[in-house]
Amino acid sequence: MKNIYSNIYSFDKIILKKTVRLLEQNSVVGLPTETVYGLAGNAYSKSAIKKIFKFKKRPSHNPLIIHYNNLKDAKQDVIFNKSFLKLYKKFCPGPLTFVLKKKAKSKISSLATANLNTVAIRFPNHKIIKNILKSIDSPLAMPSANISSGLSPISALDVFKEFKKKLKIIIDGGVSKVGIESTVIDLCTKPRILRPGVIVERDIRKVLKVNLSKKNLKLRSPGMMRKHYSPGIPVILGQTPKSSSHAYIVFGKKYKNINNYFNLSKKANLKEAAANLYKIMRKIKDKGYKKIYVSKIPKTGLGLAINDRLKRASK
Ligand code: TXA
Ligand code: MG
User: What would be the CATH architecture of the domain defined by 8-208?
Assistant: First the structure.
């Protein structure tokens, strides 16, 4: 069924068929996942991948995450290892992305992987994307559905605002529950987190029973550009606003309900704060505030991912 934004659809059998057909024809579509909304295209098709990079204005050296419905399909493209299988068993489907070695016979377009010999793979946990992955023969390359360096979208309307009618279909799967992008872990050498997320280091350490590498090999995650997740207005960390025309993002119950204060979580719950982060930054921008100040947010557990996104937004 359509709504007023003529390319946003709710999910049913007819739209499933249409979406699958479009993906098979190498078009790109906007799809919901549990983390953020993605811009999906056939990972085996050079022309689909080209469209993704063009729509997002994404630099070609920043590789895409390839999404699968099951292990059997992923095995066509990457080399599994023990750490991967342990983490898969514990967290998948879910908000965790694995960087693994690419198989020589993999059909993934080399454009999607920025010519690297590794691939980032993910098994998303959302009914709609799982249904779509089950219905097509190829995996889906799916970066967040936003113009490069902006905020990731967490609703169909957010995706619409980025790409308007350029996409034939945006499927409405509700607000993304996690609200920030998946944790990315490199398993090609000693396990190392490349992008923090809701699955935190401690969770991973418990499963692998090894300490994770802290080595910051920038080249491993070429897309982890410093300026990223930007709301389009200045973001200033660790300071209070000087004027009520500036928004203040806060965390915890000690902050009063003041007009220009936006609380990520009154209960000081980091999961809730992560889920609210992009929602609140978009809201502040839409309300016409010129600057965003941010109070201190704990730098442990999931707080690391929130601080990571805020820090990049402030560059
Ligand atoms: O939650 C998510 O992961 C969302 C949803 C849509 O699944 N996707 C997402 O994709 O955040 P994107 O393209 O916005 O971020 C992908 C990240 C980038 O930082 C990229 O550099 C890294 O994954 N990446 C992809 N392939 C890689 C590889 N072979 N080696 C290292 N990093 C890689
Ligand atoms: Mg992104």
Answer: Alpha-Beta Complex (3.90)
Q: Which of 33, 49, 140, 144 to mutate to test the pocket of ligand 1 (most atoms within 8 A of CB)?
A: 144
Task: Give me the pLDDT at residue 5, please.
Answer: 74
Compute CA distances 121 → 37, 93, 100, 135, whole Å: 16, 11, 8, 18
- pTM exceeds 0.85: yes
Outline where the chain has alpha helix (H).
13-24, 46-56, 71-75, 82-91, 127-135, 156-163, 201-208, 270-286, 303-313
CATH topology for 235-313 is Rossmann fold (3.40.50)
Which residues make up the CATH 3.40.50.11030 domain(s) of the chain? Answer: 235-313
Ligand 1 neighbourhood includes 125 CB (under 6 angstroms): no
Question: Which is the closest atom of ligand 1 to the Cα of 119?
Answer: 29
Residue 131 pLDDT class (50, 70, 90 cuts): very high
Q: Which pairing describes strands 96-102 and 261-263: parallel, antiparallel, or unpaired?
A: unpaired
Q: Report the separation in Å between the CA atom of 38 and the middle of ligand 2, taken as the mean of its atom positions.
A: 9
> pLDDT band at residue 111, thresholds of 50, 70 and 90?
very high
**Residue 288 Cα, ligand 1 centroid: separation in angstroms?**
30
Query: Considering the chain, what is the average pLDDT of its residues?
Result: 94
The token pair that represents 210 in the structure block: 């090894």
What is the maximal distance between C-alpha atoms in the chain? Answer: 59
